[in-house]
Amino acid sequence: MQQNKTTDSVQATNDSQKRMNILNGKSLSKTDYIVLGGTFLLMGIGLYLIYRLQPYFEKLHFERLKSFWGAAVINFGLVLFVLQISFLLYIVYLYFRYKPVASVSDEELPTCTVIVPAYNEGRLVYDTLISLVNSDYPAEKIEIISLDDGSKDDTWNWMIKAKAELGERVTILQQEKNQGKRHALYRGFNIGKGEVFITVDSDSIVEKDTLRNLVSPFVNNEKCGAVGGNVRVLNTADGIIPKMLNVSFVFSFEFIRSAQSALGSVLCTPGALAAYRRDAVMNCLEDWITQTFMGQPSDIGEDRAMTNMILKQGFDVLFQRNAYVLTNTPEEYRTLYKMYIRWERSNVRENIAMSKFAFTKFREGSTIGPRILLLNQWLRVLMAYPLTILMLYLVVTQPVMFISSALVSIFIFSSIQVFFYSKRYNLLESFWAYPYSIFYTFTLFWITPYAIATANKKGWLTRTLPIEK
């Protein structure tokens, strides 16, 4: 029996290490090379068409300038372009101002409660708990609570197994019925004793120094109310979509959130890994659990909602680039678009919530930065319908011009992500930014308009039984 426990524990650790090594080794399969090669071929064709059809495009451009609506669309497009370039330069400036906080000593580390809600995660929750216990955080200062939110699979059995092996290091609880992630976290917040709460998704693996790096900003900055971790993709070996998402995540977290952190205004602490000052959570906990949208209880976007409520109290919300967590991501189109719909619905809801306080004096010091971040969020939401309509119009009336222009634009702007990722990690893997942009432009363009129209709808959408492989 003891041998089986040891074997499973070692296997979990080895599996986690193998998955982490994926982020460093990065071999590509034959299919990967075909996809990347096809992507470069498409962009090459786009560049060729732009070059060959330049006289035709110029003629079309001048003809449109002669009409009122044609000139209006072109001029408005130029204004949008200037605004986005200006915002990008602003983010670049903020990025270079950002520095992660170094880990403090064991003596300075605060006590913390790690809360791991789980629903239909199977073996993954076991791996998550093993990685948490293997952290180099002082054992006497950490409390780990995992809650099964009424799973329909063997999640609870894996939690029992983890408890049997890890003993007093882990507390496991079971909800009587499935109530949603927010309610599981609420229970954890109420029973946790730590000075800092850490939330970790049950399909995520932390590195040994992740937790101590994550909570160190609370020690040196009394204004720090929350900290977001650096999320990378765990299952990059399991498909093309995870590989593409990994590059997208690096840009979203290590570039965008680094810039937001320089303002003390990270807009969303990720569910995969986040830390919150206890007082900040308790000040808004009842408002958070009873939050509604259009008269219905909110059952999505609990991470962005908590972030908003902590920002509203005047606290800083920071990002720790050195606090890594590896998380499972969708491997199929259907699961991916459902995740994006949930994220975008939450984005619409919480943009509205943030707008209610962002233009007040909600904290000491400058509030211009958070307002700029929010206005850029709103610009993207408000332009979703006009840009989608324009895209569909051009696809019907000028398909060659639209497709070739889109491919060239993807090459230009995705090269920013390629450059960033290659400087931080690996050149070959950075090329996944190109197929991801093509994939998003032509197959996921409808997500934001749909999410806006259905922002009041409830449901997690992706909480299903795990598929056996």
UniProtKB/TrEMBL annotation:
Alphabetical UniProt keywords: Cell membrane, Glycosyltransferase, Membrane, Transferase, Transmembrane, Transmembrane helix
Protein name (record): Glycosyl transferase family 2
Organism, scientific name: Myroides marinus
Single Gene Ontology BP annotation: hyaluronan biosynthetic process
Entry GO terms, CC: plasma membrane
CDD domains: CESA_like
Chief location bin: membrane
Compartments where located: Cell membrane
GO MF, one example: hyaluronan synthase activity
InterPro entries: Nucleotide-diphossugar_trans
Pfam families: Glyco_tranf_2_3
Superkingdom, natural source: Bacteria
